[in-house]
Amino acid sequence: MSGIGRAGAVVAAGTLTSRITGLVRNIVLAAALPVIATSATGGAADAFAIANQLPNNIYAIISSGLLAGVIVPQIIQAAKHRDGGSAFVSKLLTLGITALFVTTVIAVVAAPLLVVAFGSRLGPEASALTLAFAYWCLPQLLFYGMYALLGEILNARGVFGPFAWSPIVNNIVSIIGFVVFIWLFGVQEDVVGWTPTMVAVIAGTATAGIIAQAGVLLLFWRRAGLHVRPDFHWRGIGLRHIGRLAGWTFLMVVVGQLAGLVQTTLVSAASSAGASVAAMSYAWLVFMLPFSVIVLSIGTPYFTRLSEHVATGRPDALRADLDAATRTIGIFMVGALAAIVAAILPISRVFTTGPQTAATFAWVLAAYLVALLPLSFQFVLQRTFYAHQDTRTPFVFTLVQAVLVASTAITAYLVLPVEYLAVGIALGQSLANIVQLILAVVLLRRKIGPLGLGGAVRGIVRFVIAGIPACAAGWGVSLLMARVWGWTIETVPAALLGGAIIGLATLVVYVLLLAVLRAPELGTAVRAVRRILGR
């Protein structure tokens, strides 16, 4: 088995397991806090979604793009030093944790302002509950940053498994805490009647899970082969060079978060009236399930390899791996998209309280799914820019995407009825992602010349030709089950079983059609699945 194959299998197996446990986590949370409000005082799920999203938003601004786009190539370069990069990583960890701690303290103090910014259209009761949640959730910022910083260092050193597997601990802690909440307090839809104990259990559980997730990585630190110590002498770390690279990445993440702020602020107007912040959040989690399992599993090892090709001046090898990554991602993602579309109603029922709210949720999810393939392919292209230590160009096409996201969200707010607001905003984001992909292709071609993706394009066409009838077959199974038994969206257990049957039927037809078309990528995909299951 090749090194990239082993790494991909480890990451994919860990990501798949973490996403399955994460799915259970979110099902339990949706049972505790109903996603779509059905009463005038509903919206507790929206309040928690906004509060729990705050540390993610702040973390993304200060470090997410920096870690993913800048740190890995720098650590790979530092590995050539006599000490193997230990001094560089010591300085990097000290600087990173210090900055994260200071930012976390500032965020907690500024919690009332953050709640106003992201939930300005919430009612007074919902705003008060959001603030109470925020005080418990914002400390997650420090531990999110530690998790990402430690994980990216391990990835850069070729230790891919722990970063992918540690979220499982977070999910287990959260599942236990949310079950305890339901047992103690029952289902809570309304934003009124919350006690400090109730807030502490639900939000404290979320934060405890993130702490555990970061702590697990420390158990695997020896595998990195680095000897680190606190080092506050940051001179010589190359901050000026990193700053130039990270400056564009920082701006890129900022514009993305500002677009997200517009979305969250506007869609919160629909809280207590239908699909709102929580519905969009859960739909995005479903959308990200195949993206995380497939794209991140394949793309993470390839990113390290692309960086190595650039560092050693091998453009042909880079193009070959770019083509291979696109093909491998494509064959899996088209199948996943077909299965999700076919089973969209049972999937939606898992996170909602009944068939009617499931249909509302399904429209939001469908709007996001429009961009599943474009976003998947754009991920590989963006990492290719990062491998060249070019963060300016990704900023350019992300700026265009952010402007489109914000403008389409404003248009949806002004034009659509409140019950369709979440659908319109999600669809606007998907259209913006399609434009972003087109720009990324054009700009990367200008940078490195022909991309060598002709084979990948032909492969994607084959996948789509097989995926469309496979989705139709799965949809037919869905209609048959609904007509004969009528139970696929009546209860959550039935929806889980029905969705699994529909998805499996879709994938079986997809694989058979690929075999009929003699898709050469099918053998690669089968071997990849075997490696994942073996892990």
UniProtKB/TrEMBL annotation:
InterPro entries: Lipid_II_flippase_MurJ/MviN, MurJ. One of its GO terms (cellular component) is plasma membrane. GO terms for molecular function: lipid-linked peptidoglycan transporter activity. It comes from Microbacterium imperiale. The keyword Signal does not apply. Its main location: membrane. This is Murein biosynthesis integral membrane protein MurJ. GO terms for biological process: lipid translocation; peptidoglycan biosynthetic process; regulation of cell shape. Keywords: Cell membrane, Cell shape, Membrane, Peptidoglycan synthesis, Transmembrane, Transmembrane helix. The chain crosses the membrane at residues 27-51, 57-76, 88-116, 128-150, 162-186, 198-221, 242-262, 282-303, 324-348, 360-381, 393-414, 420-444, 456-482, 494-517. The lineage of its organism: Bacteria, Bacillati, Actinomycetota, Actinomycetes, Micrococcales. Pfam families: MurJ. It is a multi-pass membrane protein. It is found in: Cell membrane.
